[in-house]
């Protein structure tokens, strides 16, 4: 075997995609020291997205100061390659930043907008935004304010809305943002298909993990519904039911309505930027993986995104995963050749994660022994 490609997601809570690549690569080298090994650490838009692109594309790390979810000053960064900037919502509106103050009715995405503005004002014309891991529920209005969108209440006063005040928006003026973003292409990496509001929307599905109790969920959902109606009447577009509009506290809706951007599966964005089809030419085996594969994983997650492109070239794909859930077997019809769990001893995740790196290495060792044996038998 002469060529291997490693393209995993992170194993959330235990290993980053960069770490997974390194472990798999070290084992391949033991068996095929002279082989070509290409690493493609994948992030689907959440925390770590910028780091993945910095390594994957050799992108520049651009640092800046902006405000966090509670308007505190923070230092962050994004990745830049040529005139393309890759940013993550989690950098200035991430769930870990809320710490013990979880309250999605008052948190803001303003810092995310500051980051976008910084990239645009420094010459970037293609903006890619990862929508994963937010602690907010402001419909992207904070982000929009940082980019020049003006929100006014019925009294004509300008303000920066949050989840609890979205219903107070009576007038939206996007003219300044349109001038700033002229000639810019904005794409959000989005791997969920939730609508803006309703039982499957941003507030009901995601706000509880951000600190919302039942009454707050009801308020946030109603306010998103009001925002949707205001967008429809003021801007003439209905984004509420577009799949992914509920991502990142309905920031997906804000990307569509205020920035005239688009939503695209994260894995497709990563593979396109990496030039994946060209990379996997002549590959003997592709290793991919994620923390868990199940029925949900079949809807555009990393393993399936990688496998779909490999299938067209008839390249074997080995999926290394933590857990194998119900419905995972359907992945075999979508290009996955083998699913191998790295969990070598049955134990709770809190204990298993401490040994996950060794378990991954031992599992890859086992797979490589099988591959080596198969090749030697030919």
From TrEMBL:
Gene3D superfamilies: Glycerate kinase, domain 1 (3.40.50.10350), Glycerate kinase, domain 2 (3.90.1510.10)
Keywords: Kinase, Transferase
Root EC class: transferase
EC number(s) per entry: 2.7.1.31
GO biological process entries: organic acid phosphorylation
GO molecular function terms listed in the Swiss-Prot or TrEMBL record: glycerate kinase activity
Stretches of the chain forming a coiled coil according to its record: none
UniProt keyword RNA-binding, yes or no: no
Pfam families found in the cross-reference section: Gly_kinase
InterPro entries, sorted: Glyc_kinase_flavodox-like_fold, Glycerate_kinase, Glycerate_kinase_RE-like, Glycerate_kinase_sf
Transmembrane segments: none
UniProt entry tagged with the keyword Methyltransferase: no
Family statement: Belongs to the glycerate kinase type-1 family.
Protein name: Glycerate kinase
Upper lineage: Bacteria, Bacillati, Bacillota, Clostridia, Eubacteriales
């Amino acid at each position: 075997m002469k060529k291997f490609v490693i393209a995993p997601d992170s194993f959330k809570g235990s290993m980053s995609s960069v770490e997974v690549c390194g472990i798999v690569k070290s084992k391949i080298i033991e068996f095929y020291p002279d082989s070509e090994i290409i690493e493609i650490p994948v992030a689907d838009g959440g925390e770590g997205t910028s780091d993945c692109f910095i390594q994957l594309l050799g992108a520049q790390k651009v640092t800046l100061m902006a405000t966090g979810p509670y308007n505190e000053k923070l230092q962050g960064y994004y990745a830049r390659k040529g005139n393309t900037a890759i940013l993550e919502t989690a950098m200035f509106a991430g769930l870990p930043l809320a710490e013990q103050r979880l309250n999605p009715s008052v948190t803001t995405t303003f810092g995310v907008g500051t980051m976008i503005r910084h990239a645009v004002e420094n010459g970037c014309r293609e903006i890619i935004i990862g929508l994963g891991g937010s602690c907010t529920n402001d419909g992207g209005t904070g982000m929009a304010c940082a980019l020049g969108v003006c929100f006014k209440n019925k009294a004509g006063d300008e303000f920066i809305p949050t989840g609890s005040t979205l219903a107070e928006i009576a007038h939206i003026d996007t003219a300044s943002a349109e001038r700033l973003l002229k000639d810019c292409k904005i794409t959000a990496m989005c791997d969920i298909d939730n609508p803006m509001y309703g039982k499957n929307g941003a507030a009901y599905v995601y706000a509880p993990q951000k600190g919302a109790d039942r009454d707050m969920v009801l308020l946030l959902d109603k306010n998103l519904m009001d925002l949707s109606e205001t967008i429809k009447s003021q801007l003439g577009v209905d984004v509420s039911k577009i799949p992914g509009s509920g991502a990142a506290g309905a920031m997906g809706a804000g990307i569509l309505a205020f920035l005239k951007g688009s939503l695209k599966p994260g894995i497709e964005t990563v593979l396109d930027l990496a030039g994946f089809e060209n990379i996997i030419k002549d590959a003997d085996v592709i290793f991919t993986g994620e923390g868990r594969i199940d029925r949900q994983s079949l809807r555009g997650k990393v393993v399936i995104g990688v496998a779909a492109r490999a299938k067209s070239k008839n390249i074997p794909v080995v999926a290394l995963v933590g857990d194998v859930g119900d419905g995972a077997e359907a992945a075999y019809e979508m290009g996955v050749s083998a699913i191998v769990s790295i969990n070598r001893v049955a134990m709770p995740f809190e204990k298993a994660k401490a040994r996950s790196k060794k378990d991954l290495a031992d599992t890859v060792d086992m797979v490589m022994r099988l591959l080596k044996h198969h090749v030697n038998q030919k």
